[in-house]
Input
Amino acid sequence: MSTNNELVQLRDKVDEINLKIVELLNERGTVVQEIGKQKIKHGIKRFDPVREREVLDMIANVNDGPFETSTLQHIFKTIFQASLELQEDDHRKALLVSRKKKPENTIVRVKNDLIGDGSQSFIMGPCAVESYEQVRAVGQAMKQQGLTMMRGGAFKPRTSPYDFQGLGYEGLQILRDVADEFDLSVISEILNPNDVERALEYVDVIQIGARNMQNFDLLRTVGQVNKPVLLKRGLSATIEEFINAAEYIISQGNDQIILCERGIRTYERATRNTLDISAVPILKKETHLPVVVDVTHSTGRKDLLLPAAKAALAIGADAVMAEVHPDPAVALSDSAQQMNIPQFEEFMHELKDFRAKLQS
Ligand code: PEP
Ligand code: MN
Output
């Protein structure tokens, strides 16, 4: 009984100290915030390692135990970190692309289509623009399927400099002409910040390819234009890096961003890349941006396009992207993974059926 009493008393004492610690920490926090304001006013960097070292040395000098100096220093390092976070601007804590900052979905308008409004759509088209006839054949097949968003590369980011690099502006013109004939919109990749402005005359969505996900100049440039951007996940990018790449764009004012999961590089060789299907709900949870799944570059296998596309729709993707070519065998890029037109028609038939079942 008496030991119990003693224990209760000791615990009361500890609680009293805990309260004091909380009070002191918050008092410290208030002072730290004031210091933060002074630092901003005088243009001094927030992180000050010399100052931290002084405090750690002071702890070593005055410490009489029972705690080890290293233990106290460890605790103080945590306090330093928390204080630094207190001094950080709001937008460092909540990114502009985050749901925390904006709970409702961002709906991206692509000509007459809305992406991110709950409907699930399709972005189809050749890997690269090779000729007017080639793009027109795909555009016509798309039109027959009631599709409205056409992709196609005019500037191709190829692994080898000796491979077909794309037709450039001539390719963009072909995309525009075919799109106008069939009332489609154009989604095309731009590689160079200097091409962005001129490309606006041809495209409805600027695509930033996987290899350029961390091309910060390019991201900032497309962040300054009034045109939607489809941002593809980097070859080996983490979700956090992907989200931060989108933040580069939105930080410049453009919030019309579509995220595209296109598979990541792993040790697996059975597919061209590994489709990170769980990235879709994570991105939708963490950000307010629409998410598209590119089943062509993620799988690199025609036999996996349909099951991967079904998985994408089932898990909540806002759109599915895939490549179509009138004669894939002679395509100048990604010849093994593009669908021919009958395969595309079959694919669309099955996928539309699946989407209707999901929605009912
Ligand atoms: C593409 O979509 O044309 C392309 C090159 O894909 P990625 O950037 O994802 O490799
Ligand atoms: Mn391709």
